[in-house]
Amino acid sequence: MSQPVPSRPMASDAHSAAVAPKGLTARNHGLVACPACQYLCRAARLPDHRGAHSDCPRCGARIHTRKPESLARTWALIISAFILYIPANLLPMTYSTKLGLTQVDTIMSGVIYFILTGAPHLALIIFVASICVPLIKLVLLTYLLLSIHRQSHWRPRERTRFYRIVEVIGRWSMVDIFAVTIVAALVKAGALASVEIGSGAFFFGAVVILTMLAAMTFDPRLIWDAMENPHEHR
User: Fold this and answer.
1) What's residue 87's pLDDT?
2) What is the set of domains in the chain, with CATH numbers?
3) What is the largest CA-CA distance in the chain?
4) Model's pTM, two decimal places?
5) How confident is the chain (234 residues) per 10-residue block, as mean pLDDT?
6) What's the pLDDT score for residue 146?
7) Phi, psi of 15 (to 5 degrees)
8) Which of 8, 60, 99, 217 has most Cβ atoms within 10 angstroms of its Cβ?
9) Beta-carbon contacts of residue 78 (< 8 Å; ≥ 6 apart)
10) Residues in contact with 77: Cβ distance below 8 Å, sequence separation at least 6, in sequence order
11) Going by C-beta distance under 8 Å and a sequence separation of 6 or more, which residues neighbour residue 67?
């Protein structure tokens, strides 16, 4: 006798698999993952109000079904970072003095200087780490916030990957600060030249810290909450 041939899944089945039914989410089953050790905890004893939390039974870390006030806090940090990003790029990063002549450099003028002096690889590193990386983080986080407010169903896996990208590239944002401090320390060892850190470096450091905090306060689980209501597609 011939064996039955398994039927191929239909497009509607694939769509329903991508959109998890409401009853299949961990939160609706009273489960929540610990952010520190990833232990799957029972959250049934959590109080039913915003900001309610409990402690992980394995490592003692504080756990929430969703991070409290995640969207409001992330928006506040992102807006502040956007505001500080402007003076971080316009104000001087360094004041270099050599033989009585003082030169003022911003991030972009430093990039141009390295290109003209035959060090394009250094110019590329500073341009990517100091200009592109912070801007990419701000744009991606803003897009994720807007998609959550719109309860978008568009490609939640890709949007979650966007958040992972923000986490990964965040560590490269401080390259310019490290470069400035190292150059200042090396040049001060000489007797004929000196380098001082400008106010732009402090604004840039504030932008880096704010974007790191924004990535920490953002809850990527909110991306998937809209998928529990597949009929409210936007």
Assistant:
1) 94
2) 19-65 (no CATH), 70-226 (1.20.140)
3) 97
4) 0.73
5) 44 43 62 78 57 72 79 95 93 80 83 86 84 89 92 86 84 66 58 74 89 90 75 50
6) 93
7) -65, -40
8) 217
9) 138, 141, 142, 145, 210, 211, 214
10) 210, 211, 213, 214, 217
11) 217, 218, 219
* Partners of residue 54 on adjacent β-strands: 63
pLDDT for res 5: 42
Contact 58, 35 (CB under 8 A): no
Distance CA 93, CA 72 (A): 31
Here the tokens at position 96 are 């270099």
Classify burial at 110, counting beta carbons within 10 Å of its beta carbon; exposed 0-12, middle 13-18, buried 19 or more: buried
Contact, 107 vs 126, CB < 8 A?
yes
